[in-house]
UniProtKB/TrEMBL annotation:
It comes from the Bacteria. Coiled coil: none annotated. GO terms for molecular function: DNA binding. This is Helix-turn-helix. Residues 33-88 form the HTH cro/C1-type domain. InterPro entries: Cro/C1-type_HTH, Lambda_DNA-bd_dom_sf.
Length: 111
């Protein structure tokens, strides 16, 4: 485990940046998981696999975007990061509209 831990703000910033890149199609779910596990949590594959209750091999496959992990396994590996697996539109324009609509709804709710 890493000894130089990130502040909560830095951890959140790293998470948000990885998610932005994922939504833009620049990173895969496996790449995001690997980065967050190593850089944010500072955990080895073995330690993280034990934490989430899957084999190290399954975790490795997920991080390499290899194999066919079940939705249950995917949810399990992202849960400690405060994330869940879900459906997103494949079309970038539709995804942009979805995010923009959500931003507008959040702003209206805050008023």
């Amino acid at each position: 485990m890493k000894t130089d831990t990130l502040t909560p703000e830095a951890r959140e910033a790293a998470l948000l940046e990885q998610l932005r890149q994922l939504l833009r199609g620049e990173l895969s779910e496996g790449q995001v998981l690997r980065y967050l596990r190593r850089e944010v949590l500072g955990m080895s594959q073995g330690d993280y696999a034990r934490l989430v209750g899957i084999s190290r091999r399954t975790l490795s496959d997920i991080e390499r975007d290899a194999g066919n992990a079940s939705m249950a396994s995917m949810d399990r590996v992202f849960r400690p990061l405060g994330l869940r697996v879900g459906l997103l539109p494949r079309q970038p324009a539709l995804l942009s509209r979805l995010v923009a609509d959500d931003d507008e709804a959040s702003a209206a709710h805050a008023r």
